Amino acid sequence: MPYKLGTMLDISNKVQDESRQGEAYAPLTEQIRQFDKKFYIESYGCQMNFSDSEIIASILENQGFGATRNMEEADLIFLNTCSIREKAEQTVRKRLSEFKHLKRSNPSLLIGMLGCMAERLKTKLLEEERLVDIVVGPDAYRSLPDLIGQADEGQKAVNVLLSREETYADIAPVRLNSNGITAFVSIMRGCNNMCSFCVVPFTRGRERSRDAFSIIAECADLVANGYKEVTLLGQNVDSYYWRNPETEEDVTFARLLEMVASISPQLRVRFSTSHPKDITDDVLHTMAAHENICRYIHLPVQSGSTRVLQLMNRTYTREWYLAKVKRIREIMPDCGISSDIIAGFCTETEDDHRDTLDVMEQSAYDFSYMFMYSERPGTLAAKRYADDIPAEIKKRRLEEIVSMQNRLSLESNKKDIGITCKVLIEGNSKKSAQHWMGRNSQNKVVVFPKEGDFKPGDYVLVKVNDCTQGTLLGTLI
Ligand code: 5AD
Ligand code: SF4
Asked: 130 C-alpha to center of ligand 1: Å?
């Protein structure tokens, strides 16, 4: 799941929404509760990090710290960091250096690095970045109050222990910068896949699933508070598995989806990310059986070449992947599909690259997140294979991948002209306060003129009349 100062190339997918990267957060409670001390937090990287920041805010609020959007007035500044590509780390380091003047004018200010970079670099981060007082990995947020105490006494404070159990199941996230309509709910943590390019298994540890009851309770609470959409988050949601210790009932991802969808027909359910090897017919049938489970699957292919997929340790071939796409469309002909694609992985030839373009075309993705391969220290690929594709070739291949996706996105949107779709209004369109912006079930952004008495959070039917590559344009019916 998707990564820039603020990140992703997509504006239509919130799960990897670049437009939010580096956003400062403050919850609505800031206005009603008074706190002695204030913290300021910025999140980078995937949606999981943004979701973790809401857990961190909850832990800090319980300790008497209030969130602020104004870093000048903060006693604590946190950067919740990402390591997925080298560029993500560079962005965070650059941002950190911008805090120098704040520390100079307020020597008691504490600066904490959280998340994946903290986990990857551990105490090295303290040596490399003198400004940093606190280093905390993704499984150690409960120890933040103690670490802050330690740092207050002038000691550098570090906790990067990974856990096999921690899911923060009992912590009610403080919804930061929420629109009050859509929310992210973390259902699992970590990853066991060991894709050879990926640092996540090292920064987020072993996979573990959260207690299903706590997930349902969190979603039900969101519904009671007027939310209309939840996105169930995990590095690999399809391998969600939790056993009810009392009834010994097995809760698979398909069952969990069904349980969440049954909370209210008014609640839309999304999820991310799916690994093609783990998404089952059971999940697809469950989606098809519930109108409120959105017809949209983020199904990263990474490469279209079977040889490269093998080096990536993805455990499927191009044919197997294409068969999965076919199966999704058999069960749900109207399902949106998006992908993640890496250009220039170790040893990638022009033929391999053409295979990737070909899989994109055959899969007819509605959207993709596209990246140049970035070698990450400690990963299987860094140990086993040379990062041997020159930067300019990676760049050219990425450009070809991006132009292929641009064409596919436009084609997909053009096909929608004339259809009517159900849209959940999220707010004003970015370009005009006279237009609403929302999303349809397929996660496409739909923009239409304001008419009648509708408001954000309402479902409306919109007839699509026109489109751009990134947006469907329509009118209310
Ligand atoms: N280099 C480039 N892209 C990467 N991703 C993960 N690791 C790397 C890397 N080392 C991409 C994958 C993944 C997405 C979240 O980020 O496409 O699905
Ligand atoms: Fe998310 Fe960490 Fe992976 Fe970045 S490295 S995408 S923050 S899990």
From this structure: 29
Residue 7's identity, in one-letter code, is: T
Ligand 1, atom 7, residue with closest C-alpha:
198
* 9-46 per-position pLDDT tens digit: 222 233 344 455 676 665 544 444 567 899 999 999 99
The alpha carbon of 109 and the centre of ligand 2 are apart by a number of angstroms equal to: 27
Comparing CA positions, the residue from 40, 2, 39, 36 lying closest to residue 21 is 2
Q: What is the DSSP letter of 217?
A: H
Residue type, 168: Y
Domains and CATH numbers, the chain: 1-20+175-294 (3.30.750.210), 29-159 (3.40.50.12160), 298-415 (3.30.750.200), 420-476 (2.40.50.140)
Residue whose CB lies within 8 A of the most ligand 2 atoms, among 44, 116, 202, 369, for a mutation test: 116
Decide whether any atom of ligand 1 lies within 6 Å of the 197 Cβ.
yes
What tens digit of pLDDT does each residue of 110-152 get?
Answer: 999 999 999 999 999 999 999 999 999 999 999 999 999 999 9
Which residue's CA is the nearest one to ligand 2's atom 6?
A: 46
Q: What is the mean pLDDT of residues 207-214?
A: 97
pTM: 0.93
CA of 219 to the centre of ligand 2 (A): 24
Q: Is the CB of 2 under 6 A from ligand 1?
A: yes
CB of residue 198 inside a 6 A radius of ligand 1:
yes
For ligand 1, atom 13, which residue shows the shortest CA distance?
A: 340
**Cβ atoms of residues 90 and 197 within 8 Å:** no
Residue owning the nearest CA to atom 7 of ligand 2 = 82
In 63-121, alpha helices (H)? 86-97, 100-105, 116-121
